[in-house]
């Protein structure tokens, strides 16, 4: 039996308190695009941004030309109460008022890796190309080892 789109969507969301400025961000735990937004595949060839789908499930269709803005400034957040519609101009003004950096420096400002692990001193490697998550690196190395050592 196929799972409904809504059930599939919410199965990929972590509502554990503690993320975001007020601790009430709902974090997308599945696939992310390079800019840090969540993504979900619908059907065979269509992919949608998670925060946009969250907004639409609660509020209905998004009018053409409008963006879904995050009041929490957390790209992985899909909490509908943190999402609102706005124009590119409004989004840019919001970014400037809040002192958010331009896209090239966003990676430095992230507090969590793509999988949601916090960048703490204990969980962060510092390299010449930036930071990386020790928990994710450990999981990757373990999977790689298991793949190499498993009989085919």
Spatial extent as radius of gyration: 17 Å
Low-confidence stretches: none
Shape: globular
The biggest beta sheet reads: 2 strands, antiparallel
Would you tell me the overall average pLDDT? Answer: 85
Give the structural class.
alpha+beta
Gross CATH architecture of the largest domain:
Alpha-Beta Complex
Count all strands and give the number. Answer: 8
How far the N terminus sits from the C terminus, by CA atoms, comes to 32 Å
Strand content range: 15-25%
Order of helices and strands: HEEEEHEEHHEEH
Tally of helical runs: 5
| Spatial order of strands in the largest sheet | 1-2
Specify the CATH class of the largest domain: Alpha Beta
CATH topology of the largest domain: Homing Intron 3 (I-Ppo) Encoded Endonuclease, Chain A
Question: How many domains?
Answer: 2
Helix content bin: 25-40%
């Amino acid at each position: 039996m196929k799972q409904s789109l809504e059930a599939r969507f919410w199965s990929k969301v972590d509502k554990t308190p503690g993320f975001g400025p007020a601790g009430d961000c709902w974090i997308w735990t599945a696939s992310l695009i390079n800019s840090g937004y969540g993504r979900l595949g619908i059907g065979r060839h269509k992919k949608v941004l998670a925060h946009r789908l969250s907004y639409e499930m609660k509020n209905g269709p998004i009018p053409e030309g409008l963006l879904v803005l995050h009041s929490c400034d957390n790209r992985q957040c899909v909490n509908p109460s943190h999402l609102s519609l706005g124009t590119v101009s409004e989004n840019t003004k919001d970014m400037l008022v809040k002192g958010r950096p331009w896209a090239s420096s966003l990676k430095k400002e992230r507090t969590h890796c793509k999988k949601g692990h916090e960048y703490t001193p204990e969980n962060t490697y510092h390299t010449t190309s930036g930071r990386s998550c020790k928990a994710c690196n450990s999981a990757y190395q373990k999977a790689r080892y298991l793949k190499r050592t498993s009989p085919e």
